[in-house]
Amino acid sequence: MRILKIQTLRGPNYWSIRRHKLIVMRLDLENLVETPSNEIAGFYEGLVEALPSLEGHYCSPGCRGGFLMRVREGTMMGHIVEHVALELQELAGMHVGFGRTRETATPGVYQVVIEYINEEAGRYAGRAAVRLCQSIVDRGRYPKAELEQDIQDLKDFSREASLGPSTEAIIKEAEKRGIPWMPLAARFLIQLGYGVNQKRMQATMTDNTGILGVELACDKEATKRILAANGVPVPRGTVINFLDDLEESIEYVGGYPIVIKPLDGNHGRGITIDIRSWDEAEAAYEAARQVSRSIIVERYYVGRDHRVLVVDGKVVAVAERVPAHVIGNGRSSIAELITETNQDPNRGEGHDNVLTKIELDRTSYQLLERQGYTLNSVPPKGTICYLRATANLSTGGSAVDRTDEIHPENVWLAQRVVRIIGLDIAGLDIVTTDISRPLRDVDGVIVEVNAAPGFRMHVAPSQGIPRNVAGAVMDMLFPNEKPSRIPILTVTGTNGKTTTTRLLAHIYRQTKKVVGYTTTDGTYIGDYLVEAGDNTGPQSAHVILQDPTVEVAVLESARGGILRSGLGFESANVGVVLNVAADHLGIGDIDTIEQLANLKSVVAEAVFPDGYAVLNADDHRVAAMSEKTKANIAYFTMNPDSDLVRKHIQKGGVAAVYENGYLSIVKGDWTHRIERAENIPLTMGGKAPFMIANALAASLAAFVQNVTIEQIRPGLRTFRASVSQTPGRMNLFNLGKYHALVDYAHNPASYEALGSFVRNWTTGQRIGVIGGPGDRRDEDFVTLGKLSADIFDYILVKEDDDTRGRLRGSASDLIIQGITQVKPNSRFESILDETQAINKALDMAPDGSLVVILPESVNRAIKLIKVRGVQEEIQPQNSTTTINDSQNGVAPSSVVNTLL
């Protein structure tokens, strides 16, 4: 078997709207193409031996063991690889369950789809599954050592990518509340919410966390001084920088026992407590120097270690932290007890699990000696043997929830301390013999104030009630149901996406909001271009959603981006589907129009239930998407007598209709006329039906988002099919004696739409410079030729510079084949170079002619036109002539001539 391609999806996608994290592996079965599993000797036995846990997979039989039943009876290897990849992730602790396997149009090539938790692990699992299955086919077995290595590698991927228990608690709470989140590109930052409503976090620091508070909390001595000055009980201590000062500092704090710790340490690193001799003090000093140049020497206070978590000025959780320890059973040595304790599945490396495995250091051996033990000692049954002096969870400690026990005066004191330091989230380390009594009564002290405190001990204590501390953070960041999202309006279709996206963004700007939008021409925020290029995928969407100034997102979603990576966001407020027509078929395993429609329907299906899917009622494939989405439906139509729209309106629905020459919104008994088509520049004076349809879709999408008719109308009137607003979309230039039109039509549907306008040109000649992308099917090029023969009087057939793997000249030959099939006597010539073809057309144009250029490079075509002395870029409108609009919006040719 051979893996041809692996793609990672991160949002609603062709395979699943709900399962956003999927790996799509294109797998060639090669010599196994016609060999089901039951015909491979020993395969079933080898698979069960390697992965007996596959017994838990139900598969299509719908019962435990159903998948293995399929393997025994005979199933194809792509299906088996899917299940193995899922099971490998399960064995590594990543719980996944969704998978799909489909054969492509290429015999023996399958698309294997598997869910993932971690991207790298998911991709690795796919490759490992192929290795495992191939090994069993070839050798009848998969070596146990290789399987163990695979699982360990998967665990390593998962651990390396882990955001940590605190961040994961915040993410889970955000997801529970429907608040979107995404990781940012640096410093382990995550973003909660979108656009102008976003908040950012790093661990448990927020973008509201004051830098002065963080700096103060990180300087433990300064913290202690400012708290002492405010009457807060803190340990007596001092800071030294040299070993020569250690003896004097010990005398200053009142003698032994003492604590020595680094000035700017964290997670318990370099701290030694309960020091009772000079030798211990010297060793502790050297350990602290490994972490910090400056060293704190403090009096040691007897008591239990507590962490009090304060969020937004309120105590939300209290935990008693118990140092790493083992409990004797009267039989096992301390070393054996440590091994047994570390086998607890709740213990893991670092911060990955509820508890951390116990590891010994210098202080551990000193502590054992002080208790009269060595690692070989066998402590009596029930005896606690402490292994760490500090109680940090990161060193193997455990936590006991004490939230309900803290004394009200201690609550007041903790909240006051955090305000003094100036933090929105803080963890106070308090040493006291009894947290249920005021500190002043039991000689308790506040040892430290920590910025970015860990949440693990509170969300998953070893004993007691888990506390939803992440909920308190969400309440602080998004109080009183403050919005976390911005409106997202996404547009897809075979043709008209970019124009509709730009028009919709332009309409929305009439509300005075900052609009970010993505198109095939670039990514824009407000009036400014952020990045040029074809930006219709999830990465471009993230640029808009991550920008803190954007109030509305209008996103063009092309087939390629959805297919390669998914939408890139989980839900939209409005999803617009303009049309579905034959284009890009045979690419990316989308071989039929029905498959293309299923792909485009992702945009409609990914709309919130209270949002709107804006669908073209005149396209039966698009209209059928109403059955697949849970959102409200809004139709647009060029046919005022549409039976579908009439029934929809009778049921209380809303629609945009082209009627009596007007673009109108119809709801119930009301018809809200927005504007006459002839007064909308984009429609070329009402003579471009496909542009009228685009304007209907954009107007309706804005209307269902509560943009008023009074705001939509000026948006339509001031938006033009110009180089500045819609480059390559019906750009018409007056060159004096003749005109030139540039449009990026490149498929049969867009040729037909363009023809509805070009046929109205009755003076001079209609000259076409035509072609198409080289990765289209042969029959598509023939169709382009047939359509061109009906549109143009003279045709120049060219090819793109990038033939996309096609032999140069073959596309041109196919187009000519189509031309001659329709009109054997057609006037045409083949000039493969696009620049030469454009110049030839412009050179030969008789007076009054229209040269229509369908270029690969819009910018290049426009430059070639402009060097010839453009008198003006035209927007044909009817301000002086009355037009008797026909039902489809095409004006009589005599009127067209007058206007042009």
Account of the protein in words:
Helix 25 runs parallel beside helix 26 (778-791) and helix 26 packs across helix 27 (810-822). Among the domains are: 2-161, no CATH class; 236-299, Dna Ligase, domain 1, CATH 3.30.1490.20; 488-718, 3-Layer(aba) Sandwich (UDP-N-acetylmuramoyl-L-alanine:D-glutamate ligase), CATH 3.40.1190; 731-867, Mur ligase, C-terminal domain (Protein-Tyrosine Phosphatase, Chain A, Alpha-Beta Complex). The model is unreliable at 876-900 (pLDDT under 50). The two termini are 62 Å apart. It has an eleven-stranded mixed beta sheet with strand order 25-24-23-26-22-27-28-29-30-31-32, with helices on both faces. The chain has a seven-stranded mixed beta sheet with strand order 37-36-35-38-34-33-39, sandwiched between helices. The chain has a five-stranded antiparallel beta sheet with strand order 19-14-13-20-21. The longest helix is centred in the N-terminal third of the chain and has 21 residues, at 119-139. It is an alpha/beta fold and 900 residues long. The protein contains 30 helices and 39 strands. Helices cover 35% and strands 22% of the residues. Its EC number is 6.3.2.29, 6.3.2.30. Residues 879-900 are annotated as: Disordered. Residues 224-478 form the ATP-grasp domain.
